[in-house]
Amino acid sequence: MYSVNSPHVVNIHDLRRVAKRRLPRVVFDYLDGGAEGEVTLRENCRVFDDVTFRPRHAVAFGNCDLRATVLGNELSLPAMLAPVGYSRLMHPGGEVAAARAAGKAGTGYILSTISGHKLEDVKAGSTGPVFYQLYLMGGRAAAEASIDRARRAGFAALVITIDTPVSGIRERDPRNGMVELLNPGLFQKIPYAEQFLTHPGWLLSFLKDGGVPPLHNVVLPGKGPMPLTDIGRALAASTVTWKDLTWIRQHWNGSIVVKGVLTGDDGHKAVDEGAAAIVVSNHGGRQLDCVSASLRALPEVVAAVNGRIEVLMDGGVRRGTDIVKALCLGARAVLCGRAYAYGLAAAGEAGVTRAIEILREDVKRTLVLLGCPSVAALDSSYVRIPKDWVAN
């Protein structure tokens, strides 16, 4: 077990380093990589450098209030754990471990459809709010069954991802043998065996966990859980359109969140279709490359919805300063994906807990240094943005 405590790990980049040591290349690059030339992947993180702070000095106050409310759910800090597919490949605890860590920390977790654990087990493992992120894989019958299960299990909201009509091409994956890893056959894995054998800790845990599990939350009528290897075809046959929100609302009477909004126009459509919240997101740079960084798109979308629904942001968050900048630009909270997934890959639940601790302390310290008493008091007056960051 790698140590994730200070001084071994003091920031999210340190967790990434530990995760890279523990995982075989194919699994680490699946987590770490992005689409095509990875332009958007890099820009998601870099763009935070374009926003600078305008602090109020010589200000004294008591404890900073980090609490935020998302869709009526009070969070202990303005960050939720984003849906990360295939999490069980990174660590056997996977989605259950991440949800448990989020609940203990007083924040929320969003479960991906592409999960190796049953949604009921993930929900039961958390004491905090858990949202279910839905792909329409397997057709409407399979999706409706998943929605019904999520409702019975007590999920707090349904998240509809709209930016995945097909799976983006992540060029690291075919080079490293991702298809071969997911394939149940042993022969296909032989050319990539060295990367597994040189990571015996991961390999042992992977084998003890039974290898690659099926998708327990995508149950095909008459066939059972969908194999993990069928995802590419399933996504291509399950494109989400705005019209789909109509029948989804017929099966889900709770809050609906639309994830993958990058323009004011799509923000307007989400409002018109009855979404309770949207997530400004480019899928972590894993779908269409060369789109706007999430932070860069945020002001336009915030201006377009004009307070009618809640706005969250996802993409590139690695530090508490990133979280604070997103809130200053109008996000109610952020979603963190790779930031906690590096922790999960490094040390399971303990690593996720450490990632949340790091971000919490970062946000608290940033607020104090800004002279701002609470998350709720943050606004655009605390930052300076480039002049061309104006809503279209």
How would you summarize this macromolecular structure in one to three sentences?
The chain has helices spanning 12-22, 25-32, 39-46, 87-90, 94-104, 119-124, 139-153, 172-176, 178-182, 193-197, 200-208, 231-236, 244-251, 264-272, 294-305, 320-328, 338-347, 349-370, and strands at 52-53, 68-70, 73-75, 79-81, 109-112, 130-134, 157-161, 215-220, 224-226, 255-261, 277-281, 310-314, 333-336, 383-384. By secondary structure, the chain is α/β, with parallel strands linked by helices.
Total strands: the figure is: 14
Q: What is Rg?
A: 20 Å
Q: Can you identify the CATH superfamily?
A: Aldolase class I
Uncertain runs are none
Main sheet?
A: 8 strands, parallel
Instruction: Give the CATH level 1 class.
Output: Alpha Beta
Describe the structure.
- The model has no long low-confidence stretch (mean pLDDT 94).
- The strands form four sheets. Strands 4-13-12-11-10-7-6-5 form an eight-stranded parallel beta sheet.
- The longest helix has 22 residues, at 349-370.
- It has 18 helices and 14 strands.
- α5 (94-104) packs parallel to α18 (349-370).
- Helices cover 42% and strands 15% of the residues.
- The protein is of the alpha/beta class and 392 residues long.
- It has one domain: TIM Barrel.
